[in-house]
Amino acid sequence: MQLASGQQILAIEDDPILGAHLKTSLEARGFRVTLADQGGTGLALACAEHYDLILLDVLLPGLDGLEVLTRLRGKRRTPVLMMSALGSEAHRIQGFGCGADDYLPKPFSLEELQVRMAAILRRVAYERYAPPAPPEDSHVFDDERSDLRHEGGWVGLTATEYRLLKLLYGSAEEVLSKPFLYQQVLHRGYSRHDRSLDMHISNIRRKLARESVAGLRVEAVWGKGYLLSRQDS
């Protein structure tokens, strides 16, 4: 699958040196890059134009990155890779909770950024052209929207959360290992220090509970992985 062939990237980064480096490096790899150095400006661009991926710094003048992402998710489902010097677990959890698809602590190498971007873009391309799944009972997985419809309402999943829940749903009552889920959902290898998958699971549980989706329960199996239990009425 050919990536970076004119794909549109919005980089919201207030550091002029890093911003210029991102633009030059990514454009050399075939991307088309738009830069914004303030949260408000970046949000306006993200809502007004189509982008294949948004690179979003957390510490921005005006609106910070988390507020930008929160407002953006009310209007667009564009994939977002957050970049921040605030790389603690608490900050990553907060970023995923606001709807980030991935979170890259600073400083990072361009090579690592490229790998993370490629994983997100491959997933988006796959989901765009994958055949839609047939509706099943009261839980309808909408690939176009990347969300779960339950009793006429939407759960409000991010694209990554949607992909994870759909995979678990398709293997209901079967334990799926963390290494398998990392490869299939996050498109990278599993490290026991990487809590990204756990954060996505936590967000899915919270959203299912918020929307009263009582028929689905994501359970952790100690030392093995996760399974989805279906309790259809």
What do you see in this structure?
With 233 residues, the protein is α/β, with parallel strands linked by helices. The chain has two domains: 8-128, 3-Layer(aba) Sandwich (Rossmann fold), CATH 3.40.50; 132-230, Winged helix-like DNA-binding domain superfamily/Winged helix DNA-binding domain (Arc Repressor Mutant, subunit A). It has helices at 16-28, 39-48, 65-73, 89-97, 110-129, 159-170, 178-186, 196-210; strands spanning 8-12, 32-36, 53-57, 80-84, 102-105, 139-142, 147-150, 153-154, 176-177, 216-221, 225-230. Helix 3 links the parallel strand 3 and strand 4 (80-84). The longest helix is centred in the middle third of the chain and has 20 residues, at 110-129. It is globular and about 50 Å long. It starts with 7 loop residues before the first strand and ends with a strand.
